[in-house]
Amino acid sequence: MSNTDVTTVAAYAAPAPQSPLARTTVPRRPVGDNDVLIEIKYCGICHSDIHQVNEDWGQAPFPMVPGHEIAGIVTQVGSAVTRHEVGDRVGVGCFVDSCRTCENCVAGLEQFCLNGATGTYPIGPDGEPTYGGYSTHIVVAEDFALSIPEGISLEEAAPLLCAGITLYSPLTRWNAGPGKKVAIVGLGGLGHMGVKIANALGADVTVLSQSLRKKDDGLRLGAKAFHATSDPETFTKLAGTFDLIVSTVSANMDLDAYLGLLRSGGTFVNVGAPGEPNSINMFSLIGGNKNLAGSMVGGIAETQAMLDFCAQHNLGADIEVIPADKINEAYERVLAGDVRYRFVIDTATIA
């Protein structure tokens, strides 16, 4: 592929809601003065990709090219680019631009841009579709391409651009570390990174999972304890135990029961995105000055800090690399919970 005048690239797209993904081509803009062209090497499959394809979160544009866990190599830079050079290892996460001038952008919270951040997919603030990482190349503004440090393979780094930052941000914001008891709810693509990161931060980590099926994995990843939430005794035995609980579950849950596991002043943070509203008894918060919070990925600087932290502690995602023609099968396996713990597409198989 030529590095100049990029117009179309090979990709895998869902042609319509709930449709199987198939090979196609999509447009990419020419490389502007402040842009970089990235040859995508690997792209993780996030559960949110499936939600988007199925329109679980509302109407979306099609054809849709999912993918916001992108790792690759810079193959061209614009004339004004200073942050990256050809040959650099880079990653792209959930968004590829923002206004950069609003209060949130200036504060490093580009994901909450008051004028609308541009998602890696499926649609930008202008209403035009954007195409994600299930493709061979992508053009992005240099400021939104993250440096992937040496020491993390590109395939293990790809899921960090969503799963990694999604857990790193709340764990550091609510001071997970030595002397703190932290529970991670759910041991999947998000949760397994939560265990690794919380353990590396020095916290005492417990996994709360529906069953004990993944107990050995949880302990291997760094948890000191593993409990089944299907057992009512768990909520009695662990009442008032945790300083911080981070839930990765994308389904409604008994929030009152989980808040009962917190110490006074403790915090329950949800990073999952259930499709339906949930309910809570306010006395579960009032009793013990407890906090119920949410968290959504992180800004550019925080995402870079996460990548640097993971490299320093030799943390990558546990992955299964697949060819592009196995994407639809991977979607079915994600829904069945049959992955340990993140599918990553080898995008060389798309071309």
Characterise the protein shown here.
Its EC number is 1.1.1.2. Belongs to the zinc-containing alcohol dehydrogenase family. Keywords: Metal-binding, Oxidoreductase, Zinc. The chain has 351 residues and is of the alpha/beta class. It has 2 domains: 8-162 and 298-349, Quinone Oxidoreductase, Chain A, domain 1 (Alpha-Beta Complex); 163-294, NAD(P)-binding Rossmann-like Domain (Rossmann fold). It has helices at 47-53, 103-106, 154-157, 163-173, 191-200, 215-221, 232-237, 255-259, 283-286, 300-312, 327-335; strands at residues 8-13, 22-27, 35-44, 70-77, 89-92, 95-97, 118-119, 137-141, 146-147, 181-185, 204-209, 225-228, 242-247, 262-270, 291-294, 319-322, 342-346. Strands 3, 4, 5, 8, 9, 16 and 17 form a 7-stranded mixed beta sheet that branches. It has a 6-stranded parallel beta sheet with strand order 12-11-10-13-14-15, covered by helices on one side. A two-stranded antiparallel ribbon has the order 1-2. Helix 4 packs across helix 5 and helix 4 (163-173) packs across helix 10 (300-312). The model has no long low-confidence stretch (mean pLDDT 95).
CATH topology of the largest domain: Quinone Oxidoreductase, Chain A, domain 1
What class, by secondary structure content? Answer: alpha/beta
Largest sheet: 7 strands, mixed
Radius of gyration (CA) equals 20 Å
How far the N terminus sits from the C terminus, by CA atoms, comes to 10 Å
Arithmetic mean of pLDDT = 95
Element-by-element helix/strand order: EEEHEEEHEEEHHEHEHEHEHEHEHEHE
Let me know the CATH homologous superfamily of the largest domain: Medium-chain alcohol dehydrogenases, catalytic domain
CATH class of the largest domain: Alpha Beta
- Low-pLDDT residue intervals, each spanning 5 or more residues: none
Q: What's the tally of helices?
A: 11
